[in-house]
Amino acid sequence: MLPATLPLLGMPLSGAGAGVADGAAGESVLPPAGLALLRWQWHEVEAPYLVAVWILVASLAKIVFHLSRKVTSVVPESCLLILLGLVLGGIVLAVAKKAEYQLEPGTFFLFLLPPIVLDSGYFMPSRLFFDNLGAILTYAVVGTLWNSFTTGAALWGIQQAGLMAPTVRAGLLDFLLFGSLISAVDPVAVLAVFEEVLYKVYNSFVEMGSVNVQAIDYVKGVASLFVVSLGGAAVGLVFAFLLALTTRFTKRVRIIEPLLVFLLAYAAYLTAEMASLSAILAVTMCGVGCKKYVEANISHKSRTAVKYTMKTLASCAETVIFMLLGISAVDSSKWAWDTGLVLGTLFFILLFRALGVVLQTWVLNQFRLVPLDKIDQVVMSYGGLRGAVAFALVILLDKTKVPAKDYFVATTIVVVFFTVIVQGLTIKPLVKWLKVKRSDHHKPTLNQELHEHTFDHILAAVEDVVGHHGYHYWRDRWEQFDKKYLSQLLMRRSAYRIRDQIWDVYYKLNIRDAISFVDQGGHVLSSSGLTLPSMPSRNSAAETSVTNLLRESGSGACLDLQVIDTVRSGKDREDAIMHHLLSGGLYKPRRRYKASCSRHFISEDAQARQDKEVFQQNMKRRLESFKSTKHNVCLSKSKLRLRKAGRKKDGSADKDTPNGKPHRASNLPDTAAVILAVESEEESDSSETEKEDDEGIVFVARATNEVFREHKVPGNGSMEVCPSPRIIPPSPTCAEKELPWKSGQGDLAVYVSSETTKIVPVDMQTGWNQSISSLESLASPPCAQAALRAAHPLACAPPRGDELRDPLAALVTPSPEPHAGFTFAPSLAKAGRSRSESSADAPEQQELQPLMAPEDRGCLSPGTANARWLIQFNRAGRL
Amino acid sequence: MGNKQTVFTPEQLDAYQDCTFFTRKEILRLFYRFQDLAPQLVPLDYTSNPGVKVPYEVISSMPELKDNPFRERIAQVFSQDGDGNMTLDDFLDMFSVMSEMAPRDLKAYYAFKIYDFNNDDYICPSDLEKTVTKLTRGELTPEEVGLVCEKVINEADVDNDGKLSLDDFQNMILHAPDFLSTFHIRI
User: Fold this and answer.
1) Portion 810-839 of A in contact with B at CB < 8 A
2) Could you confirm whether the keyword Transport appears in this record (chain A) (predicted)?
3) The domain over range B10-98 is classified in CATH as 3.30.70.2740
4) Pick from A434, A463, A478: which residue ends a domain?
5) Are the C-beta atoms of A699 and A831 separated by less than 8 Å?
6) I need a surface site. Which of A118, A129, A229, A239 has the fewest CB within 10 A?
7) Quick one: average pLDDT of B10-27?
């Protein structure tokens, strides 16, 4: 790609390098006197080194540009890059006395273009694309034909009129060729596809020489237009199929999934190029075609990897292209100036594009349901940005066949610069001025998805009834075919099951809510300043989704860990306190575990092992605390905690009693808030307190519906609550000690519930299930959960005891702990019953249901409380 | 097409034109289509007996509609008797609603009616569950369907009554501008 010398960046380096390399070479010829301690081998690494350096320079330049938001908001990045390229090119020229590092067409087409095209193809909103396929094809095919013909012919006209210097020796065919390449729009646009095709056809004409072109050749040319484009598309689809099929079987080698995507897409590009078909079209179709299946097949991590790598590559390529474009423009040896040609070209491309757009739009609007209005047309006429494709194509011209190449090169450079700089600079203000409704990024709501599908079906049905086979009919047909055959063939079963779009959207929404929630509040449920999403009814979704999120991050599968971490870096005082509270080391192992998880690929085995480790450590801690609980050692500590929590709370919700009472009482406003569906600060307050005093939550956790029914009056409940902790002093402590059990179980119920497993993508699911199962096997015999679900608290106390004993017996030192479990469990149940305002959780419980499996409803209230508690706990553990 | 004039009386045609968004030509075309549905039932001369119904079985047995989950619902909504048996009036109504000339509110109203399975003027969770089940062709478990429905209602339920009124529905639909614009069929 880059020539061998290194005048700019490595001037001193290369000089020294050459010297040393020479020395080394000399040495290697002669028998070396001794072992060289250091050898300078510049030439061996030169080419890749230069590539790397260029990309680095481009990236650094990007960083610099974006340091100032003001500049990039006004000037498009491509302008800046081209200008930078100009400057660099000038320096190179000044230093080396000859132009270096220019945009080589080969490099461009083989390495720089594919990532850009793949990126635009892969991330093309396929539904929009196919809905507007007609318009897109029209603009691409007819528009390109129109532009190239008219521009070429008009230029030929002004040449004939004698407005160009006589040195521009070019026939009509040459001008048509030039017209075809100059009508290329921005390479990122899909519309660029057709230029390439047309160019190829013209080029073959020109290479034959205009004299030899027979009438039959024109027919062939038209035919080859279709062969080239359709052939390219076919190649792309074949590779898309292969790609989808391959990714179906990568279950055990997840790591190569992203690689496969890129390799096969690139192979499609090269294959089409080899067969002189439209490579751009091939890779675009490959991206469009494979996306649905590949996305369903590959793991979540791979998906992210693909996304980022693709974006990185595309942005990299784009950056380098624009920079090299600037550099190439400096080389005056390559081009020859002709004012008439340049001005004529500029004028005609603008004129004819506008004309073409208006004409085509007029025709299209006769058929379109949603007509394109004037503003759209203006933007479309103006938006014809010529980019690197045109330049690479013009460089590719054969000087012997096209004598006017130098003039064309100069004109192309001017046109590219004009469109990129002038139009690029002005299009933003223009768009703003015209008040174009930019693609407003309204999030896909579930409603939208649902109604879209319904409408599709309805429309298809109505079309069927009327016997009119329109677009909806064919789409319906295709979807059925896809469902019956293609998806079956190309997707793994599990993915196929998961793939249902509505569910997919639901899942995505949940995740998004969670992320925005975390972003907004930092501290999800506890910070009192947290503004929950405006609609109270959304609380549930948000909360559940937060649990979701945390669950994922807990399993190490959440790649958005970064987000959470950065948010938390601004943690408030409460967080700090919470941290100290929970820094008993309980979740430290978990943090370590997480850190290693963020190193991307960790084998599932290791994950499971780590989970086990974590759990065992937790167990040990539990055990110790149980012991100490028994001897009331831990009591003072727990009281201290309570007091802390109380103090914190009285800052927010004027209730201060040093023990657990106020916190529970403060559940009342919570109830009110939820029931009245009024978003109030108290809501968050109460949730805060709920989380802060674990004990209170534990009581809630043990309560069941029956308990709620017994005590309907909330005030009553709060009165009753206070004695319970006092009467049984160890109970908060023990409850707290018990929590991990609970979390290992109440939450497990949440985790393991069928819902959850469905919400989590397959790959994550497996990982999660593994970790869960490891946890589960440690925490409880599988039946314990079911038993717990079925039975009400008192009845389930014995199983709980079993459960307690089981892991202990199985895992760690067995001796007196089971008794602890037995003794405390009933008391807990009692306490739970006395806590009537735990009914406060009942409405919430309903709202939280999305996360819980319906069959869990019996013990949902524990689940609810626990889920919250766990959120808190997890977060704190991660601090 | 030869006996075009004898199908309807001019008064009938005028009435149809007034009641729908169609021209005479389109009305006639739709009539022939209607006649095609059940040639033995629908007479070609419509001047005297305009009350002929095409039973639902005929519509539902159309091969194209075999896989469509909403065929029954559409027929029910647009038929006057609510059982899916369609008269010519119903038939014309249906396409009139789908035509480009029909105002958005009308479209929204009929879309709403299609969702409202139990005809209580609200889209309640049970209605949505039916819709989702139909849409997903039973691939989701009942719990999942429940979750989705809950979310859908949460999203659009402005007055927070746990079900979607027509206002909620229109409000939601108007928020997505290019939404009803797709609810068209060109005859």
Assistant:
1) none
2) yes
3) no
4) A434
5) yes
6) A129
7) 80
**Are A428 and A461 part of one and the same domain?**
no
pLDDT of residue A574: 57
Is residue A351 located within the same domain as residue A391? yes
Q: Does A537 touch chain B (CB under 8 A)?
A: yes
> C-alpha distances in angstroms, B186 versus A621, B24, B99, B113?
71, 15, 6, 21
d(CA A450, CA A639): 52
List the beta strands (DSSP E) in chain B.
53-54, 86-87
CA distance A102 to A325: 7
Pairing of strands B86-87, B53-54: antiparallel
B147 to chain A, closest Cα gap in Å: 5
| Chain A positions in Cβ-Cβ contact with residue B135 (cut-off 8 Å) | 450, 453-454, 457, 502
**pLDDT at A604 > cutoff 70:** no
> Does domain B104-182 bear CATH number 3.40.50.300?
no
What distances in angstroms separate CA B47 from CA A375, A416, B9, B16, B50, one per listed residue? 49, 68, 6, 13, 7
Structure tokens at A541: 């979704």
Mapping DSSP to helix (H, G, I), strand (E, B) and coil, where does residue A99 land?
coil
Contact yes or no for B136 and A503 at CB 8 A: yes
CB pairs under 8 A between A and B: 144
Expressed as residue numbers, the domain containing A486 is 451-516
Q: What predicted TM-score, i.e. pTM, was given to this entire model?
A: 0.56
- A413, pLDDT greater than 80: yes
- Looking at residue A213, which CATH number applies to its domain? 1.20.1530.20
The radius of gyration computed from the CA coordinates of chain A, to the nearest angstrom, equals 34
Q: A361 pLDDT exceeds 60? A: yes
Q: What is the ipTM of this complex?
A: 0.78
Which part of chain B is CATH 1.10.238.10?
A: 10-98, 104-182
List chain B residues with CB under 8 Å of A463: 185
Tokens found for residue A745:
């179980």
